[in-house]
Amino acid sequence: MKLLPKQENAVYYLNDEVTKEVLYGGAAGGGKSAFGCMWLIQNCQKYPKSRWLMGRSKLKTLKETTLNTFFDICAQLGVSDQFHYNQQSGVITHTNGSEIILKDLFLYPSDPNFDSLGSLEITGAFIDECNQIVFKAWQIVKSRIRYKLKEFGLIPKMLGSCNPAKNWTYSQFYHPFRKKELKPYRKFIQALPTDNPHLPESYLESLRQLDENSKQRLYYGNWEYDDDPAALIDFRKLQDVFTNKFVKGGERFITADIARFGRDKTVIGCWDEFRLVRIVEFDKNKVTEAAMKIQELAEYYSVPMSNIVVDDDGVGGGVVDILGCNGFVNNSRPLDNPETKQPENYMNLKSQMYYALAKLINDSGLYIECDSGTRDIITQELEQVKQHNMDKDGKKQVLPKDEVKELLGRSPDYADMIMMRMWFEYRFKFEFYVR
After folding, report:
1. Among residues 119, 157, 190, 208, which is most buried (max CB within 10 A)?
2. From its phi and psi, is residue 338 left (phi > 0), alpha (psi between -120 and 50) or beta?
3. In-domain check, residue 223
């Protein structure tokens, strides 16, 4: 079979001495799944008694799609008689003893750490539609690539296919690729339907007739286009927050999201009313160091302690104790509406404040002053401010932090720091109306 030019490019990276992770995708019909299957077939033939993984979010979907593509490619290559599929065990065996193990990589609540993959040892992996799995699944699979590597003189290799998505595939691969900041061991290859001369014109026409969101993603391979109905913040308005210099200054505040036991970032924001004029971040710090930095910024910007709020969950509570400032408890009950003095229908305080922030942004009421790198991070995080379980009745709620972390591959520390600014609009104004 003659490979497409971009498939040949992928082959080069899958055989070099540096690249360990290849993301091949960007639109529908670019030959992604077929290429992944060809790669597995070649590896099984080349390395006797090796062991490979073919994965997808759900095993049922894998068997109905990727597995069928695998057998189609086998037939086209004339090697169908070399592979035997055991439906009960979910293993494809080559005549030389090599195996391809089919795996379900969905994040189940009963197995949040993917312990089911704990004893797995593989030589390499292909994950189809990897945008549908969480980043932790990708990382765990990579950690299991060690089987007979030394014997074959190989380094760990992972191949993933995907369509554009605003999750970890964007933040870990596409965005760094576009910024020319992709890590040396990672490669991204953009695949478009127009790259594949074997596609019938009728298929291309069907892609062009999709709704605008699907057409942008699946035909044009546009990673920046995301029209998710669950999103609370309009993407165009989100871009405006970095140029809304007309937003007026006024009272000054400080908001801070403190790193939990050194795992996330500590992010501190200095506010001139709704103008975020300075952002300070550091990775690992002691509680006393975070408190000292906030105190220093408060003195520089003349911010009273009553105008400072710190995430009170985890180690942030220690900072609150040291400074005597306000504490923000994410899962506490929502505050009453400052004007009506009536309860609002939110699951928790965090959801209520994110909804308020979304309204502020959509009303062009926020300005953020920062460098381009921080701008990209904030944009990615605020794009994940979405309604959780929007099809269910009940209290309004945003996506839980753990889910956002899985989508982004990191904690949304900047977004949380920005969100806490809205607490003053509820707490201060409510107290004023009560008086």
Report:
1. 157
2. alpha
3. no
